[in-house]
Here is the input.
Amino acid sequence: MDHQFEYAVPNLALRHYVVPNLASFVIPFSIELSPEITERLARALAKAVELIAPAIRDFRMITLIFGKPPAYAIHVGTGIEIYYADMNQDPIATAGNHRICLHAERIASLSAFPIDAAVIVILEELVHVWMNVKDETIAKTATAYLYGGLVVENDQYRTFGQIFDRLTEDARVDQSK
Here is the structure.
């Protein structure tokens, strides 16, 4: 067994939080996580699934892996599958082929105010796999719409309050000139 990877195993605690009628479409795996991180990820996953569910007509089974880049290794049956993230980046998440790989510790550490960034990261990857969206700009726009109260500005999620504050500040600067 190759010990350079932390192997992810099926995580029933994460699956327990998913909307019951959708749980059969999500197969979560995770590396060994503390109960606090598992709870945070489970709640974010449940919220993301809840937000996207009304927009999906035909659900596909997906494998969700909470692990660490650059490689996500999971035990499947009697074998091991390894998926590599882009080695030129340190991605917080990546999706493709009905599989989502999420950097567990980074997602769990994300801020929950003014928006729950963990939910947004997971939701965006669900948009990629369940809505079959390849383009990042379209995925971000769909994610902002599904989450509600967000817009995408300069490739970043912003709340309407943040946009209002920036516009108000810009107006003050213009008036002082």
Notes: The helical segments are 12-17, 35-52, 104-108, 117-130, 136-147, 160-176. The radius of gyration is 18 Å.
